[in-house]
Design a protein that fits this description.
heterodimer, A: 99 residues, two-stranded antiparallel ribbon, B: 435 residues, 7-stranded mixed β-sheet, 15 helices, 17 strands
Chain lengths: 99, 435
């Protein structure tokens, strides 16, 4: 179901948003794993900013730069310890102009 | 950082936090409000419809200077399948009143205004400050907060947790549990800009009149969900939200769902030619009455989305947030006036007052709806919308088939899809949950 058109579109969408990226200090991290759980794997589809992607070893990786801080991944994967979730430092992260 | 002690610290500058901070500061309490965004509103996302009555109870003259987009004169509820919509429209000239009942707003702008009013009321508002931890005394009473700014802890008699749906402090501090995927919706939204006159023509409104479309059906791909289109002055807020549990089970992408909604033949002409200027995502607490956590404790209260005070059936969130913020503040003011400590026992007054308000009464009324929708999403969001569309088309299309045969075909289609027993039991379950 990987659709390159869809991928292009979401990155295009995020391009319109304003971010203040805290370089080198990602606020979400994925714990190293061999194989992703169902919830972790689902993030590659469900994350509205498409921050989560599978690498060629079948593991889930995150690039948190486009994160809209919605918390979906936290709901799905924090309790199990698969991800470490925090808000960005004060002032950093997404800056909604309209919200 | 701040070497003074406050009567209250409010965490978050959204609807509930601003309502709480404004109410307490207006009464002379020494209030510190902390907001992690660059400016109040920079992290806040909503549809957004604002209900006047609840804000009027906090700031009676808000219409004089609040940034309001359009007051709503028309509401449309659409049941959609792939190529159609069947709608109930309600429009009334009565909504063109001196003090209109509902407005569309743009949260970043509205929250900046609300925050200015909070500061004018005397509260200290500190942005770009993320609260990292609650400070407790040796008996576990919350006595202040740590932030990510340099300096020590900041102390207060009471902390108001207005930290939003995904608030970290309450869950990390063990004050409430993490939201469950079936009790929370993920909504995505785009802001479509169009000239004012184009919006007025397309929706049949003039001046500051506005129109709302809310839609259910195959647009949510069998998931429990809702699409929405709200007219602002010169933009349209268009979005869709579904339960996180459903998104996960179906491995659906929210942006693909939104793109499909934009391309639906009923929606496409309404946004044609628009310029998209923002894409946002946000969680919405949908667990209702049964998901309301512990609301107060020694030195703390929780309000708004963080307390899961959201009426998913009526799509009301910000008014419950504002009202819970105001009521929490009023309870704190009463305890303060009696010179009593901010203990769990004394702050129970907040829950007593909230239980008597429409906030809890409304949520209690629909306490069984979240489970019903979660467990019957396929029927309510796909089967019935398709059947409705087929029935309507069967009724409208004139093709020489005798009317009696058309009626029989429609009835047969419903029975085939859900069986007689299924139809009756769905109706009963819905009626019971609604009651």
């Amino acid at each position: 179901m990987t659709n390159p058109v869809t991928k292009f579109r979401v990155e295009d969408k995020l391009y319109q948003n304003r971010y203040l990226v805290d370089s080198g200090r990602p606020h979400i991290k994925v714990r190293p794993h061999e194989q992703p759980s169902a919830n972790l794997l689902a993030l590659t589809r469900v994350c509205p900013a498409k921050c989560y992607e599978l690498n060629d070893k079948g593991q889930v990786e995150i690039t948190a730069d486009g994160c809209m801080e919605c918390g979906t991944c936290r709901i799905l994967c924090e309790t199990s310890g698969e991800i470490e979730w925090n808000y960005p430092r004060g002032g950093f992260g997404v800056l909604f102009k309209f919200g | 950082m701040i070497n003074e002690e406050f009567d209250a610290i409010v965490i978050g500058a959204g609807m509930s936090g601003n309502a709480a901070a404004y109410t307490m500061a207006s009464d002379g309490l020494k209030v510190l409000q902390l907001e992690r965004g660059e400016y109040p509103g920079s992290k806040n996302v909503q549809g957004a419809i604002m209900y006047a009555n609840m804000l009027e109870k906090i700031i009676p003259d808000f219409r004089d200077d609040a940034p309001l987009e359009r007051h709503l004169v028309e509401q449309r509820l659409w049941v959609m399948d792939e190529t159609s919509h069947t709608g109930i429209h309600y429009r009334s000239e009565d909504f063109n009143e001196v003090k209109p009942n509902r407005y569309t707003i743009i949260r970043a702008q509205f929250d900046k205004w609300f925050s200015r009013r909070v500061r004018e009321a005397g509260a200290t508002v500190l942005c770009e400050t993320t609260v990292t931890e609650l400070v407790r005394d040796d008996k576990g009473k919350v006595i202040g907060v740590w932030t990510d700014r340099a300096g020590g802890a900041i102390y207060a008699d009471v902390v108001v947790l207005a930290e939003g749906v995904c608030g970290l402090l309450g869950t990390r501090g063990g004050l409430r549990k993490m939201l469950k995927p079936e009790a929370v919706a993920l909504a995505v939204k785009e802001m479509h800009f169009l000239p004012e006159e184009v919006i007025e023509q397309r929706f049949g409104v003039k001046g500051s009149e506005g129109c709302v479309i809310e839609a259910v059906g195959t647009i949510s791909h069998g998931m429990a969900g809702l699409g929405f289109l709200y007219t602002n002055k010169e933009s349209i807020s268009l979005g869709i939200g579904c339960l996180v549990s459903d998104f996960t089970a179906k491995m659906e992408s929210p942006y693909a769902l939104l793109d499909a909604l934009k391309n639906h033949p009923s929606i496409r002409p309404l946004i044609a030619g628009s310029e998209v200027k923002e894409y946002a995502a946000h969680l919405i607490p949908e667990g209702g009455y049964k998901a309301i956590p512990q609301l107060f404790g020694d030195g703390w209260v929780v309000v708004g989305d963080a307390a899961q005070l959201n009426n998913a059936i009526h799509r009301e969130g910000s008014n419950l947030a504002m009202t819970s913020g105001r009521i929490a503040a009023e309870a704190i003011i009463q305890v303060k006036r009696r010179n009593d400590p901010m203990t769990k026992r004394n702050l129970a007054l907040y829950k007593t007052m909230l239980d008597e308000s429409f906030v809890v009464k409304d949520l209690r009324k629909y306490k069984d709806m979240p489970a019903l929708l979660h467990n019957n999403a396929g029927n309510f969001f796909t089967t019935y919308p398709r059947l409705m569309s087929q029935a309507a088309q069967n009724f409208m299309r004139v093709d020489g088939t005798p009317k009696i045969e058309k009626e029989k075909a429609t009835t047969a289609a419903f029975i085939k899809a859900r069986s007689r027993l299924g139809l009756v039991s769905d109706a009963i379950r819905l009626a019971l949950a609604w009651r």
